[in-house]
Amino acid sequence: MNALETKSLTLAYGDQPVIENLDHCFPKGKISVLIGSNGSGKSTLLRSLARLLKPRKGSVILDGKAITTLSTKAVARKLAILPQSPECPEGLTVLQLVKQGRYPYQNWMRQWSEEDERAVKRALKITNLEGFEERTVDSLSGGQRQRVWIAMVLAQETDTILLDEPTTYLDLSHQLDILDLLYELNRSEGRTIIMVLHDLNLSARYADNMVVVHDKTVYAHGKPESIITPELVKRVFGIECLVMKDPVYGKPLCIPCGKGRRAEDENLRAVDTQ
Ligand code: ADP
C-alpha cells in the first residue's frame, strides 16, 4: 500500500526540468528520507507531493486519485507539510500557530469544536510545549520554535507528514529530539513520514526507506543498508568514504575521507585495505 505515488512526473522551473518522468511509490506507514546533493530537487519533489507545485507532466497520486483533482482542504486532511524555514507572523502565540493546523476541518457550518480543542492539546503535549501556549513564537529558541511548527502539523492529524529539513539549524541534541518524536509517531501511530534530511548518518538511522534524488530522478531507493555504499556516495555526493556498521544501531555509518585532512585520509584507506 502506498501513501503517495508519482506517475511519469516531470517538475520544472521555466524550461529547466528538475525531475523527469518519475515513477515512484512512497510506502504507507514507513519513514522515507530523501537524500541527495544540494540542488538535486529534493525540496521540489517534496513540494509537488504536497500539491504546492504543479507537475509539468504526469501526476502525483494520493489515495488513488490525482492530487490536482482534490480540493485544498481534502488534501490538507490527508497530508501535512512543514516547508523549509517556515515564517511566522510577528507576535503570533504558540497556541495561535498550532490552532492553524485545524483549518482543514473548519467551514462556515463547523466552527471551532471540542475535537479541534482536543487535537491542539494533544499536539502541544506530544511536542512537550504545554505551558508555552501564550508565549510568542518569535521569543522561542530555534529548537522550541521547530517543535511549535511540528505541533501545528500534528494538530492537522493527517496520516502522512512531509517535512523539509526539519532539523536544520538545530544542535545535535535537538536534532535527535525532533527525529525521535517523528520516529515515535511513526512507530506508535503508523503515520507515514516523508522528509528531506541532509545528514546521511542520521538518515540511515531513522529511515525505513532511503530515496536518493540524483540526475533528475530517484536514482536509488531502499533500506539504508543497501543504499549507503561507497560507490553511491561517490556517485551522488562526489566524495570518497568508508562505510562501516554503526556499533550502536547496526546501520551504515558513512565516514567521508576524500576531502580535507588528506594525510589522515591516507591512514584511513590503509586501515580499510588491511
Ligand atoms: P534541493 O532541495 O535538492 O537542494 P531544490 O529542489 O531546492 O533542490 O532545487 C532544485 C533545482 O531547482 C535547483 O537548481 C534550484 O536552483 C532550482 N529551483 C528551486 N526552486 C526554484 C524556483 N522557485 N525557481 C527557479 N528555480 C528553482
List the helices and strands and how they pair.
Blueprint: E1 2-13, E2 16-27, E3 31-35, H1 42-49, E4 57-62, E5 65-66, H2 72-78, E6 79-82, H3 94-99, H4 114-126, H5 142-155, E7 160-164, H6 172-189, E8 192-196, H7 200-206, E9 209-214, E10 217-222, H8 224-227, H9 230-237, E11 241-245, E12 252-256, H10 262-273
Parallel strand pairs: 3-8, 3-9, 6-7, 7-8
Antiparallel strand pairs: 1-2, 1-4, 4-5, 9-10, 11-12
Helix pairs in contact: 4-5
Adenosine-5'-diphosphate binds at residues 13, 18, 36, 38-44.
Report on this model:
This is Iron complex transport system ATP-binding protein. Its main location: membrane. It is found in: Cell membrane. This protein has 274 residues and is α/β, with parallel strands linked by helices. It is built from 10 helices and 12 strands. The chain has helices spanning 42-49, 72-78, 94-99, 114-126, 142-155, 172-189, 200-206, 224-227, 230-237, 262-273, and strands at residues 2-13, 16-27, 31-35, 57-62, 65-66, 79-82, 160-164, 192-196, 209-214, 217-222, 241-245, 252-256. The strands form 3 sheets. It has a 6-stranded mixed beta sheet with strand order 6-7-8-3-9-10, sandwiched between helices. Adenosine-5'-diphosphate binds next to α1.
Number of strands: 12
CATH topology of the largest domain: Rossmann fold
Radius of gyration: 20 Å
Tally of individual helices = 10
CATH homology-level superfamily of the largest domain? P-loop containing nucleotide triphosphate hydrolases
